[in-house]
Design brief:
Blueprint: E1 2-6, H1 13-22, E2 28-31, H2 42-50, E3 55-56, H3 60-65, H4 76-88, H5 91-98, E4 113-115, H6 130-139, E5 144-146, E6 154-157, E7 164-165, E8 176-181, E9 188-191, E10 205-211, E11 216-222, H7 226-235, H8 240-248
Helix pairs in contact: 7-8
The chain binds zinc ion.
Zinc ion is lined by residues 8, 10, 34, 59, 61, 149, 151.
């Protein structure tokens, strides 16, 4: 089975469309949450995400926009974006966000994988360092956990000496992919990267494909219409920083 992994789209319609145009053939799509928040097209992105299938876990920005969490945990810019998103979402899309499930999500016929937003233990936890990942890798009963939330594309593995992987690309300008064969018997935490709000120093939209038959993950970075996404954020009167930071991927 070939699974397209999308995470942290953050209402960036241009980035989502670029990823879908570049995506290789796949059997199903799993969305790891933070569909909305930050960008200027929450309704269009929710509609597009919903059209791709039914496998979702909710992110903290989805909860915030849907009124399911207190905004005091958010920095001021994220909080303003969450309130703007709540005001602009249609009633139907708000209701849909409200019913999104908390991870871990399991998929029948795919016993080797689970899907979460933050971590299997806590949907709001950030997995950034090998220390964050170590205990989860050792204790997990599921070999591969796909996660988002950190907006950093890459993976952690339980193999000593290969415990953290960041895909290496030749540029930050053109469409590229990086393939990573997985080993049976090893545990992994894999982040496909953020579609619409990358924070790993590469502005390009990120996603990944997991092929459960050949047992490999392919990471992708795809240029998109950055100027259009930025112009829409400015025109929507969202904080300007949300537009400028898209260019640096920070
Ligand atoms: Zn996010």
């Amino acid at each position: 089975m070939r699974i397209l992994l999308l995470s942290d789209i953050h209402s960036n319609l241009e980035a989502l469309e670029a990823c879908l145009s570049a995506a290789p053939p796949h059997d199903l799509v799993v969305n790891l949450g933070d569909i909305v928040g930050y960008g200027a097209n929450p309704n269009e992105v929710v509609q597009r995400a919903r059209s791709l299938g039914k496998h979702f876990v909710r992110g903290n920005h989805d909860k915030a926009a849907a009124g399911l969490m207190d905004l005091s945990d958010f920095n001021p810019v994220a909080g303003m974006a969450a309130l703007w998103t709540r005001e602009h979402l249609s009633d139907e899309n708000l209701e849909w966000l409200r019913q999104l499930p908390q991870g871990p999500l399991l998929i029948p016929d795919l016993p080797d994988a689970q899907f979460v937003h933050g971590s299997p233990a806590d949907e709001d936890e950030y997995l950034v360092t090998t220390d964050d990942a170590f205990e989860l890798l050792v204790e997990s009963s599921v070999p591969i956990t796909f996660f988002g939330h950190s907006h950093v594309q890459g993976a952690f593995s339980s193999t000593p000496g290969q415990d953290a992987l960041r895909p290496i690309y030749a540029s930050v300008g053109k469409a590229e992919s990086a393939e990573w064969p997985l080993l049976r018997g090893t545990h992994y935490l894999v982040n496909p990267g953020s579609v619409g709000q990358p924070r790993d120093g590469d502005w390009r939209a990120a996603f990944a494909l997991f092929d459960s038959d050949s047992y490999r993950v392919t990471f992708y970075r795809i240029p998109y219409n950055l100027k259009e996404a930025q112009d829409r954020i400015v025109a929507a009167n969202l904080p300007a920083r949300l537009a400028t930071r898209l260019a640096s991927g920070r």
